[in-house]
Amino acid sequence: MKKLINKPDDVVREELEGIQIAHPDMVKVFFDPNYIVRADAPVEGKVGIVSGGGSGHEPLHGGFVGMGMLDAACPGAVFTSPTPDQMLEATKAVDGGAGVLHIVKNYTGDVLNFEMAADLAADEDIEVEAVVTNDDVAVQDSLYTAGRRGVGVTVLLEKIAGAAAEQKRPLKDVAEIARRVNAQGRSMGMALTSCTVPTAGKPTFDLPEDEMEIGIGIHGEPGRSRMKVKSAAEITEMLATPILEDLPFEESDEVLAFVNGMGGTPLIELYIIYNELSKILDKRGIKIVRNLIGPYITSLEMAGCSITLLKMDEELLHLWDAPVNVPALRWGI
Amino acid sequence: MGDKNMNITRDKIITWIEAFSAAIAENKVYLTDLDSAIGDGDHGVNMDRGFQAVLTKLPSVSNQDIGAILKVVGMTLVSTVGGASGPLYGTFFIQMARKTNGKLELTLDDWIATIESGLDGVIRRGKANPGDKTMIDSILPALEALKTAAGNDKSLAEALSASAQAAHQGMEDTIPLVAKRGRASYLGERSAGHQDPGATSSYLLFKTAAEVLP
Ligand SMILES: Nc1ncnc2c1ncn2[C@@H]1O[C@H](COP(=O)(O)OP(=O)(O)O)[C@@H](O)[C@H]1O
Ligand SMILES: [Mg+2]
Prior knowledge:
CATH architecture of chain B: Alpha Horseshoe
Largest sheet of chain A: 6 strands, mixed
Number of helices of chain B: 9
Number of domains of chain A: 2
Helix content of chain A: 25-40%
CATH superfamily of chain B: DhaL domain
Helix content of chain B: 55-70%
CATH topology of chain B: Serine Threonine Protein Phosphatase 5, Tetratricopeptide repeat
Strand content of chain B: under 5%
Oligomer: heterodimer
Radius of gyration of chain B: 16 Å
Structural class of chain B: mainly alpha
Shape of chain A: globular
Order of helices and strands of chain A: HEEEEHEHEHHEEEHEHEEHEE
Number of strands of chain A: 14
Number of strands of chain B: 2
Number of domains of chain B: 1
Radius of gyration of chain A: 19 Å
CATH architecture of the largest domain in chain A: 3-Layer(aba) Sandwich
Bound molecules: adenosine-5'-diphosphate, magnesium ion
CATH topology of the largest domain in chain A: Rossmann fold
CATH superfamily of the largest domain in chain A: Dihydroxyacetone kinase, domain 1
């Protein structure tokens, strides 16, 4: 294992210490239990938004804390969901009297821990609603699985719900908008290489030099199929087609196209994928009205990418364009 | 059969928690390897992190009642383990605590009610059914074996030993199952042929119980 770390057990704590001294204008970091809140929390009369998940997906979620997006993020150990005590403290810290929205990616651990946290918050008379993201079309959605995994849509949802909360909309509305984003978005990812969890010290899975995994999860969970590496055009087609057919996205739909890097892939390649994606959408008469390109929901040093398409409407567009000022996104200010 | 009237004392409960923590530490790599095959390779690390924290908390509650001790175990797991197993094992111990509040000794019948309460909590929280390839696939047969033993007027030691055997069988019986809950369910049919890590750690609960509780 080759990594820029000191000790594997100190990775999350030292990262949080780095965030704390890098962005004191935007966030405050608390330890034991670990959580990050926006510097001016709680904002009176505003719905507080709390998300969280295993570490290793940076900038998700800590990089999205601040004006116009999240009020708090709870980082777990690398690839392990955080615990209810973190979520409870974060929930209390951001409760401005208008209730708190929990944004939860659909993994059994995340869901169970956030459920326990919501029970604990209810005991303290804080109104909590949870929205679960499950946009990964690589996974079968059936009664016989834990359901689809929450991936790229989570980033877009955090931005859009954050903007709705910033306008002081009530909890019910913010939750409804968040659920709409999840319902209208779909994603799929692929990996060129594995990733190594620091405490594990060896790659999560083996992937031969000339092969790729299509449908990979953000924790290195196996995908749909493994094959020889293909061209960017063919890979984009393999990711975009299942996404387009699932919702389905149709001619004259307007979309936000999000090409995400898995952590180890340079922007030059992500722009090549974006170029291919725009050709595919063009051919189907689907219009890209907004885009996001870069590493926003990563999987440590994994090389690869994911594509997320979100069907937009006037309200979502307006909320996407609203000002945001967080460590990993900034516009309109 | 003098030992028919033997009860589980508070000190034995503490010894059991310590023995289980040691078993988890010993099997950390094994549990993690099982989880690597069908999950994300952290079950041993998660459980060990939790039970090491439990060990540091135990001395401060060792003179309280069994319910108080089990509650501290559960709360500590909830706040240190994370993942699916944190809330599930945490709930297991917290619900066991509800049946043992104020008690300094447990009869076999008390122990059965305690395990049953813990299992009900796990099922309520995780919504798994028997055969879904989860930790309940070793806990449920262990509970049934305890009930059968009690019905046949067996001693505490015999009942605990039967529950360990049943948990072991339940653990092995997860091998051919297709996972329907947790991360392993993403694999669908590919999860068959592997033993469930959570059912394996749960077997260790009953194995250590049979060793130290009688
Ligand atoms: N819904 C559930 N109900 C009961 N047990 C479950 C459930 N989901 C997962 N498990 C158990 O949890 C174990 C995995 O635990 P762990 O690896 O620590 O958590 P994670 O899956 O979040 O990484 C599985 O082997 C299984 O026995
Ligand atoms: Mg695991």
